[in-house]
Amino acid sequence: MAEEKKRTRRANGESAIYLGKDERWHARVPMGYKDDGSPYRRHLTRPTRKELVDEVRRLEKQRDEGSARQPGKPWTVAKWLEHWVQNIAKPVVSENTYDGYEVAVRVHLVPGIGKHRIDRLEPEHLESLYRRMQSAGSKAGTAHQAHRTARTALGEAVRRGHAAKNAAALAKPPRMEEDENEVEPYSVDEVQSLLLEVNKRRNSARWMLALALGLRQGETLGLRWSDVDLDNEYLKLRRNRLRPKYEHGCGEAAPCGRKAGYCPARVQVRRETKNTKSRAGRRAVPLPGPLVVMLRSHREAQARERAMAGNLWTESEYVFTKPLGGPLSPNTDYHDWKRLLEDAGVRDGRLHDARHTAGTVLMLLGVPDRVIDQIMGWEPGGAARMRARYLHVTDPMLKEAARKIERAIWGVPENLAVDKDQDNEA
After folding, report:
1. Which residue spans within 273-385 are E strands per DSSP?
2. What is the predicted pLDDT for the residue at 303?
3. Are the C-beta atoms of 351 and 334 separated by less than 8 Å?
4. pTM
5. How far apart are CA 41 and CA 31, in angstroms?
6. Residue among 17, 27, 38, 30 nearest 64 (CA)
């Protein structure tokens, strides 16, 4: 049968297929309505009717599933990412999360893939970007941050109909080397070396909260005296201290020529603290007796500092402050940690490694998982995953397991196994 050459009348909502004067087959596919309420149709053309019908069916399927591109000029990747990070992500995510998104968008994604149309972006474009980033010296973790940001932003674009697929969800990020994120918790001997040095320093209890209880930096620096109950020996964690962010206050007429953080008239544009984002993060943590003693001593030392500073003291309710009061800066706190490690003669490590150390010590002591989850602030649904990440099997634990196997299989008395271990250590 010869292919139809006339338009046929269609019911509302059906696609119209016809042969045009140019001897090509054309279709008008209803796709919904524009912002002004007028109908929106997509025009397709193919050399044969069969090719056109196949394409019409594909487009109708996308329309019915809600994944077809909406009317209007297509977004470029750069325009979408900039719109997404400022107008969609910023109002709903935490300041720290936004900072990570903003850097990934501005530094890596927009320069790397920004010129592509969002509905024509392919996984290979992203994979090529990740390779270029690593060739330029970026770590795999940085590429992963860019990948996660792209996946989140493009996922929103798909949900809103600006793209049919999420190219980042299909792309393969670079492989993370096993030792790149490997953490070796501090041993009991190293913790004791740190304790000896900590006792010589101002704000000494701050570091023992990290090493003994695994408090995050933001949780510790955001702690207020109203959260601490020394009589009942516990503290409540309710908020996190945020990293300060500044803008120039000097004005365009007389710019200081420095970075905003060093401007003499700098203006703080970020709130000091935010409430913990999860229910598990808002928790009560028991205080060991020596920590209670340290915190009592710290409160007395802070009262003496306040009295000596007089009018120079910046009043606040924070447990850990600067020498003249006011909240500690996370950046200053980080550098204090590095000096502490150096002065104690302990190997270098991240401040967050203290949290890994605390979790591992709790496991070594046989503390039940549910109690570890409470102290560390892990959500019940993800607690098993977090334990696998933070609790590390140490050499003493492996030796103890070997002794138990030895006693169970070979019947070696416990005291003999212990004596043998002591001989080996000697």
Report:
1. 273-275, 283-286
2. 95
3. yes
4. 0.64
5. 5
6. 30
